[in-house]
Design goal:
heterodimer, A: Alpha-Beta Plaits, two-stranded antiparallel ribbon, B: Cytochrome p450, three-stranded antiparallel beta sheet, 44% helix
């Protein structure tokens, strides 16, 4: 699984954290998306990452298998 | 809280309560039926006036005509309160496409923008800046990010103990008062009011000031003068509060944004006043209405009420909250944008300078996304795809706080009062047809 995030586009809505808080987090200073250091890589995680990408209101997440 | 333009909207749609009640709610209407009652004065309307009226006796359903429009005329022509024409966009996918397209502007000061009320025009004349929800990126995101850290998922989760404390205190008061009590004034309103006031750093004793001014600002029946007066009072209050916080900063949003961004030139006092006003109003009006209207919807669906009350899995409650957000879509007068260039959406050309209204209540009943969309189903697997918080980079800043409050409030209320029920007949309940955020004015309950 390969995930790209666009911190400039991010509007800090937090949808990605709700969908997958073992993959995404929000920076303390402004709520902007960050990827966690150790991200699970399995079918379940992929599905949740894709869900996060689909829910992201800013289109700031891109997930590739 | 949602990013909804404040103050807002058009002439009342309260006439929807006047007709006799049908036995069931019509979810579609004949296409040749008039969309709204004709005006009693003035020239014949060229296009139907938006917002449309809800069908009598169907307080939880969007205006019935929206289903027909979604099916047959997904881009239709309407006009708003001052006659400005706009495209009414009713399908889920089209709304998503527009709300995530930077060629559509949220700047309500652009000529031809389909504003929600005379108050917007008055504010434009007043010379005050408009809050960040009416700005476009990248400026919008720059200002929005001054506030986003206060509304992250982590912050909302960290508030849980304090939220529970406030909730328990209010439920204690309700219990002491004894049935019947008005759920709105005893619980639904004070909970989010106290919470947003604490986050911003607004003293608890001043909550009635912002609640009363807020009511004026979100009423569709307020005149431009009433709107300006309420805004000036609240703005003057918040300006004084900002000055006090600059002198003696506290651990709250207004203090920190004033010190970090206003004193360093990232924003102005006038802008911070407007943005703080937006957060204060949006932070309590929306959640108040979700608590009260959501509780009423659950009381009308006893099996689902019981499931929320007895749920042991927090995920089940979270799912129920998403479904209530979808089903009720209390921001019921549409998100609005203006095309800045010619854009084609699903084969429909929208020309530069034309306004669009995205009726999120319609999108959230779109059967191409949600099965049996007119049914409340708290186990609906994809409820969270709703557009109740909007879509695009303007999506509700306070959504995680709102979710957290609702996820705690419904079960706590229902567990404290397992026999909770309305204390009045349906006919006696006054719905907020005339407010930009829908709900109930009062909800007497017993247990």
């Amino acid at each position: 699984m390969h995930i790209e995030i666009d911190q400039d586009r991010c509007c800090a809505a937090g949808q990605c954290v709700l969908a997958a808080d073992d993959i995404f987090d929000q920076r303390d200073e402004d709520g902007v998306v960050v990827l966690l250091d150790h991200v699970p890589d399995n079918a379940d995680a992929l599905a949740r990452a894709q869900e996060a990408a689909g829910l992201c209101p800013a289109g700031a997440i891109d997930v590739k298998d | 809280m949602t990013e909804t333009a404040l103050p807002t909207t058009a002439h009342g749609t309260a006439d929807s309560t006047a007709a006799t009640e049908p036995a069931t709610c019509p979810h579609s209407a004949p296409r040749n039926a008039p969309l709204v009652a004709p005006d009693t004065a003035g020239p014949a309307p060229e296009h139907p006036r938006y917002p449309l009226a809800r069908a009598a006796g169907c307080p939880f359903d969007p205006p019935a005509e929206l289903a027909g429009l979604r099916e047959h005329e997904p881009f239709s022509r309407v006009r708003v309160w001052d006659g400005t024409p706009a495209w009414l966009v009713t399908r889920y996918q089209d709304q998503r496409a527009i709300l995530t397209d930077s060629r559509f502007s949220a700047d309500a000061t652009r000529p031809g923008f389909p504003t929600q009320s005379p108050g917007i025009a008055a504010r434009r004349r007043s010379g005050n800046p408009l809050p960040f929800i009416t700005m476009d990126d990248p400026d919008h995101n720059r200002v929005r990010r001054m506030f986003t850290s206060y509304f992250s998922v982590k912050r909302a989760r960290a508030l849980v103990p304090r939220l529970n404390e406030i909730i328990d205190g209010l439920l204690d008061d309700m219990e002491r008062a004894g049935a019947p009590v008005d759920l709105v004034s005893t619980f639904a309103l004070p909970l989010p009011s106290l919470v947003i006031a604490e986050i911003l750093g607004v003293p608890r004793e001043d909550q009635h000031l912002f609640q009363s001014r807020s009511r004026v600002l979100i009423s569709m029946n307020s005149t431009a003068n009433e709107t300006m007066e309420a805004m000036e009072e609240l703005g003057s209050y918040l300006g004084d509060l900002i000055d006090a916080k600059v002198t003696d900063p506290q651990d709250d949003l207004i203090s920190q944004v004033a010190v970090d961004h206003m004193l360093t030139g990232g924003t102005t006092r006038a802008r911070l006043v407007q943005d703080a006003m937006l957060l204060l109003i949006a932070g309590h009006e929306t959640t108040t209405n979700m608590i009260a209207l959501g509780t009423l919807a659950l009381m009308r669906n006893p099996a689902q009420l019981k499931a929320v009350r007895d749920a042991e899995d927090p995920a089940a409650v979270a799912g129920a909250v998403e479904e209530l957000l979808r089903y009720l879509t209390i921001v019921h007068t549409g998100r609005r944008r203006l095309a800045t260039e010619d854009v084609e959406i699903s084969g429909q050309l929208i020309r530069a300078g034309e306004g669009v209204i995205l009726s999120n209540d319609s999108a959230n009943r779109d059967a191409t996304v949600f099965d049996d969309p007119d049914e409340l189903d708290i186990t609906r697997p994809n409820a969270r795809r709703h557009l109740a918080f909007g879509q695009g980079t303007h999506q509700c800043l306070g959504q995680n706080l709102a979710r957290q409050e609702l996820q705690l409030a419904y079960p706590a209320l229902l567990r404290r009062f397992p026999g909770l029920r309305p204390a009045v007949e349906e006919e006696a309940i006054r719905y907020k047809h005339d407010a930009v955020v829908y709900g109930v004015y009062e909800l007497p309950v017993a247990w």
